Amino acid sequence: MSSRASGWSTYDIPDQSGRTAVVTGANSGLGYVIARELARKGARVVLACRSEARGRAAVERLGGEVPGSDTELRRLDLGDLASVREFALSYERLDLLVNNAGVMALPYGTTADGFETQFGVNHLGHFALTGLLLPALLAAPGARVVTVSSMAHLLGNIDPRDLNCERAYRRWTAYGRSKTANLLFTHELARRLAAAGADVAAVAAHPGYAATNLQTAGPRAEGRRRAERFMEIGNRFFAQSAEAGALPVLYAATAPDVPPDSFTGPSFAMWRGAPASSWRAPWTLDDRAGERLWAASEQLTGVSYEALGS
Known about the structure:
Blueprint: E1 20-24, H1 29-40, E2 44-49, H2 52-65, E3 70-75, H3 81-87, E4 96-99, H4 117-138, E5 143-148, H5 171-195, E6 200-205, H6 214-222, H7 225-237, H8 242-254, E7 263-268, E8 272-277, H9 287-301
Parallel strand pairs: 1-2, 1-4, 2-3, 4-5, 5-6, 6-7
Antiparallel strand pairs: 7-8
């Protein structure tokens, strides 16, 4: 648990008793910390994990750290829309959805449905999941959708003519575009929720530079040991902890009066520190770009937000 150093901390999370939360990618890193702290405050937490083995280990670990916590493991593969649809079937009410899971700077690959992996997992999987869970979110007064983006969204705006990066694939540009997509999705979802008069808030957050296994997964997948070692050194000497990186997401998820379409991150240079309002690129607030991405996402996933009249 974080200490009372300065600013907002896990001590300040309001009581979550009676609330149900889904956290994607909750078996490790930021997702695990988010799930643990929500459970510590009384929420019923569903850990949505691609690997059942790693998910079971996370549930066991969480139970040891927070005795008596109410947690459940559900398998979710955001790179497979059939898995997303199956996951979303059994929810009648949901208070909080944390779209946290993601991949970073992987070699070119495609999801089960043929989408470029980073765009498919980081954006399209969460777009479909949120749309399918929307009726359950609308049934819970004051529900929130928190989508985790990154300061790396500054690496690239989306190209509506090449959403799947088929023309020229550069791993970091593709990652930046997927994180831009997360922010554009939040922007457009917030606009549509407001137009429908829905009592659901769509917000975004990012962890700054936090030490997780996200940085090393790409190099490890390609056997690029030197790059993997470089990332390990960065995590060790320059990054803040996963506990600190999770704070902006927990703030966005639980603090009172978080504005719709807000972007919360670390207070010091978007890098580290207590949660604060974070700067974002102007292209993530472009209404027309948000509408185009939304239409393309509906077409690609086959998921429409009928509850909002779209």
